[in-house]
Amino acid sequence: MFGRNLRILSAPYASISDLARQLGINRTQFNRYLSGESFPRPDILARICRFFDVDARILLNPVETLTPPSEAVGDPFLRGFVGAGIQNLPEALFPSGFYRFSRRSFVDLDTYVVGMVHVRRIGRSTFLRGYETKEAMRMQGLPEDGPSREFRGQVMLQEDGVALLVARQNAMTCSFNFLSKVASFQNNFWVGYLTRTVPEATGGLRAARLAYEYLGTSLGPALDAARISGFRKADQLPPFHARLLKPGTDFH
Fold first, then answer.
1. What is the pTM of this model?
2. 156 lies in the same domain as 52
3. For 58-61, which contacts have Cβ atoms below 8 Å and span 24 or more sequence positions?
4. Are residues 113 and 190 in the same domain?
């Protein structure tokens, strides 16, 4: 069970070697955990649990059944309002797995960002995880290590779609995203918008159209899409993404 859970938690990472480095665990030993050949010492288990924001029940229980130890929306004051949209988001409406997204860059308005996220259920809640591109971090003069690039979010049900509240570590930056499903051949696209938290007086783009494409749960297609992530010109966007984003018509 631990090996299975660890494989699920590791799926969003492009490289097991990089993940092992971030955890400070020998790659060979980490592979033994993944295959179920061995179990970590208590201190290593605690490190893994802190990194993935889970608890020691991952040794025995499927990770999908584990609920985070504390949920702000679980407070009675919010439970019937914000909490009502977070609990029990239907899998059919916004399935777990890998997504490719596209949006206009907030750093260079002549380019677009193509990136990846992984969505998963834990208990009755739906969570999102991804990484800013190294190029985007470099252009902003920010660190390019994994923890600095990582962002996480929570997905909640809305009347006509889903809303995503996403933040970098320590809530350094946040964004609000709204997506609704669109008709497509494989029924795997969503479109909406993203707004970033910047002061009103700040110049530049504060809101942009956003396209999501569901890639499924297999790691292979996700890795193929991840290899072409990063900054792209409008004519380099995936065709249906470009159709949804309507380059040249973003709003401020």
1. 0.71
2. no
3. 58/1, 58/2, 58/5, 58/6, 58/9, 59/1, 59/2, 60/1, 61/1
4. yes
